[in-house]
Amino acid sequence: MKDAFGLPQSLLVLGGTSEIALATARRLIARRTRTVWLAGRPSPALEEAAGQLRGLGADVHTVAFDALDPAAHEAVLGKVFAEGDVDMVLLAFGLLGDQARDEREPEAAVRVAQTNYTGAVSAGLVCARALQSQGHGSLVVMSSVAGERARRANFIYGSSKAGLDAFAQGLGDALHGTGVHVMVVRPGFVRTRMTAGLPEAPLATTPEAVAAAVELGLRRRSETVWVPGTLRVVMAALRHLPRSLFRRLPV
């Protein structure tokens, strides 16, 4: 069960090698989280991540999970919930893709969309139903400011995050009053392996800063978290900028 400040004792991470997710897990373990499930494709990286968290004192399990295999989600994730209540699910898997390549190769673009949106819809609904059945818990969804308005430079990724964001908001409304809390996290450019080599955007942040924002959001039971918070104002302006002007921006 969560403590008085809304922090979980048990955590299920979908996207078990995500640097943001692992930074969040480390922060929560330092507070009170004791059981962690890392769900992802079996790999040495997943086992290494589990080992690092065990070194912090948590009881850590790995789960073979593939966002691109929605037919297996109910069975795979159902086994986790069958082990006991899960206080928090962190949906953190995603694929950035390569915009130039993906425009030339529609199959690659579809893979981005299926990972970031279709896979998240499937896993999100499975987890939401399980959380609702147990009567409590938080579903934290890693969205992105890229979903606020599609940019020429990454509209394939951005459109998939826009769909995810809208889905998560609607799911939060559907679960309101059930005891299940849905929180959408919208980071800007985060310095991770996924963004290595890309031009750094203004207001760039770190996995640790996102983790801190997630913890604060849990304590406040926020529905939307921006990282950094300044992006809320920036994106409000960009969202309403006339399209003819938006096209001219170097974004």
TrEMBL record:
KW Oxidoreductase (keyword) present: yes
Oxidoreductase recorded as keyword: yes
InterPro entries listed in its UniProt record: NAD(P)-bd_dom_sf, Sc_DH/Rdtase_CS, SDR_fam
Superkingdom, taxonomy of origin: Bacteria
One of the Pfam families matching this protein, by short name: adh_short
Keyword tags: Oxidoreductase
SUPFAM superfamilies tied to this protein: NAD(P)-binding Rossmann-fold domains (SSF51735)
Alphabetical list of Gene3D superfamilies matching this protein: NAD(P)-binding Rossmann-like Domain
Similarity comment text for this entry: Belongs to the short-chain dehydrogenases/reductases (SDR) family.
Name of the protein this chain belongs to: Decaprenylphospho-beta-D-erythro-pentofuranosid-2 -ulose 2-reductase
Protein source organism: Streptomyces venetus
